[in-house]
Write a structure and sequence with these properties.
Order of helices and strands: EEEEEEEEEEEEEEEE
Strand order of the largest sheet: 3-9-8-5-6
CATH topology of the largest domain: Immunoglobulin-like
Distance between the termini: 65 Å
Radius of gyration: 23 Å
Number of domains: 2
Largest sheet: 5 strands, mixed
Oligomer: single chain
CATH class of the largest domain: Mainly Beta
Structural class: mainly beta
Number of strands: 16
Helix content: under 10%
Number of helices: 0
């Protein structure tokens, strides 16, 4: 049994059981800072408290990526189930409605991506996020493996054994007012080259989802406007005369402005 080292009360722990090299080798989430954790399969006996924390905002959507290769060349039991749970109400349970935020069933080894949204009703503060994978009940060829579906605490216990891996993370859930607690600079975006002749490149921050991008002149007149989720955006400035302009990037939670010069 592996114990958690965390300031919150302990959510259930249980021992994993490696069978054939299965496990999570990479997990990513575009919180702040972004989570990008690479590990060996079945580390720490299949149960790991990662001590990794990311900040997320109520009402925002977040993208995840998970990779679980299988190292051993086996014929049977070569499909996997996967789930993510988040303790949104911070009651140290993961079984409440809406706390299962992602699920995959009977997929082959590989990399999978998805999206979930932090509900506006979530409690503010630190919440557990549990990332789980284990062997599925049937193989790619339809053979029977006997594994049950994933539950957050492996209750009832899988009769064949929990052949998989669990990783625990902490999410710092904030609302609009909570942005002042985020590390300075995480909302900052970059505009270059500056001064610019033809094109500018805008690198957007991780928190920018469905952000409004504007270019305005010194009189406050908006000359360019669009909504974007792109991480990098190139804009041709041929429609602008030489002079000083302002690039604004904003959503309902924050607003950042950069001064640029068109030559």
């Amino acid at each position: 049994m592996v114990s958690l080292n965390n300031t919150k009360a302990q959510i259930c722990t249980f021992a994993g059981e490696e069978c054939c090299g299965e496990g999570i080798t990479n997990f990513q989430l575009n919180g702040t800072p972004a989570i990008n954790r690479t590990s060996t399969v079945n580390e720490n006996g299949g149960f790991t408290n990662t001590a990794v924390t990311a900040t997320v905002i109520k009402g925002q959507a977040y993208n995840y990526s998970v990779t679980f290769p299988i190292e051993d060349n086996i014929v049977n039991c070569n499909t996997f189930n996967f789930k993510i749970y988040i303790d949104y109400n911070q009651n140290d349970l993961l079984t409440d409605a809406g706390e299962e935020v992602a699920s995959l069933s009977s997929v082959a080894n590989g990399t999978y991506t998805g999206t979930f949204t932090i509900p506006t009703s979530a409690a503010t503060g630190n919440a557990y996020m549990r990332v789980m994978m284990k062997m599925a009940s049937t193989s790619l060829s339809g053979g029977f493996c006997g594994h049950t579906d994933i539950t957050p605490c492996n209750i009832p216990a899988d009769p064949v054994g929990f052949h998989g891996e669990v990783e625990n993370y902490t999410l710092n859930i904030t609302g609009a007012s909570g942005l002042t607690n985020i590390t300075s600079g995480v909302n900052d975006f970059q505009v270059y080259p500056n001064p610019a002749n033809d094109d500018i490149i805008i690198d957007l921050p991780p928190l920018c989802m469905n952000c409004q991008l504007e270019i305005s002149n010194t009189l406050g007149q908006v000359l360019y406007s669009e909504f974007t989720d792109q991480k990098s955006k190139t804009i041709n400035l041929q429609f602008l005369k030489q002079g000083v302009y302002f690039v604004t990037l904003k959503n309902e939670y924050w607003n950042e402005v950069k001064r640029i010069v068109k030559q």
